[in-house]
Amino acid sequence: VNQILLVPDKSDSERELVAEVWISGGGEVVRLGRFWDPPALDRSKIRLYGNDSFCLVLASKLNLQLVSPPDDLLVRVGSAWANRNIEMRTLAATAGGDFPVFVKPLVPKTFKAATYDSAPTLLQECTGLPGDTPVIVSEVVSLTAESRAFVLDGKVRAFSVYEGSKDAQGGKAFASQFVEQNHLPRTCVIDCAFISGRGWALLEANASWGAGLNGCDAAGAAACIACATTSG
Question: Using CA atoms in the order 203, 205, 206, 212, what is the torsion angle rounded to 10 degrees?
Fold first, then answer.
């Protein structure tokens, strides 16, 4: 394949597992510190894997496209898959509503996704953000297990229950069913959770190029990561 995987030079045990698989498959791994000033490489062979700032800056510098799920996927699929009440609101409307609620930003990493007990606590976390900032709000539920699935071409390629204890077979079956019945980008990562008293549910979707393994098989994840960057 001879693809070049660019990763941060900061040590990370999970990322090293992906790097080992990549090299064993005939690819090259380049560890970058000064990622804002990348070396001259064949951009058609470059694939990215790392944190958001690392990948987004490199994609911009090298004119690459990153394959990512839509930010509002959780709202689009609705309560049937989320297994809880969930909706899109503005920050101002959320602050004026009932608490406690779980709030996460529509644009990832804008503020901390968490359960907020009061409007002042939420607004303090969101200091500087305008009232019309879109957020995803859901009812507070009890999670007894969380899982991760790396997805490629409509199939789960790697799966792990990374937190709590629950039947992994049931979790993988739910993730596979979700992937088969919903329109997703070519590759992404699907996190599901077991909600106490309700069953498995979609927790969130992430990009393969930025997701940690969380116990998933590195080879399956690497196959997804290889398709998460395109040169257009």
Answer: 40
